[in-house]
Design goal:
The chain has a single domain, classed as Deoxyuridine 5'-Triphosphate Nucleotidohydrolase, Chain A (Distorted Sandwich). Helices cover 5% and strands 35% of the residues. The chain is built from one helix and eleven strands; from the N terminus they run ββββββαβββββ. The protein is globular and about 55 Å long. The N and C termini lie far apart (41 Å).
Amino acid sequence: MKIKIINKSHNPLPEYKTIGSSGMDLKASLEAPILLKPFDRALIPTGLYMAIPEGYEGQIRGRSGLALKNGITLANGIGTIDSDYRGEIKVILINLGNEDFIVNNGDRIAQFVLIKYDRADLEEVDTLDITDRGEGGFGHTGI
């Protein structure tokens, strides 16, 4: 699938690093480094603009290495880029670590994953079908 992309950063286009990679690394596009103190968050530009096809969404996901080594993750869990959005892709980073963290231009800050989705037609009803699980949730099946 081809996706039209405008790259206003000075970084190369995102790419899959291995044949089995589902995500492409997004890089920071910065004029100057950004300091994230513990529990600070910042909106980090990528300099990328995409035309995601209808029926797909771009998901922005954290990088496991940043989370494990530095406590850097996405403030919104997973970000969504809708197919009709044409603005710059930006990433909301948060520092959940104990040390200051500096984001530099070109740093790999997140992953971009393209996901196909279906739109739902909601049907209001009075009851739902019965299942073995029922209303059990939040750890009811044990550890």
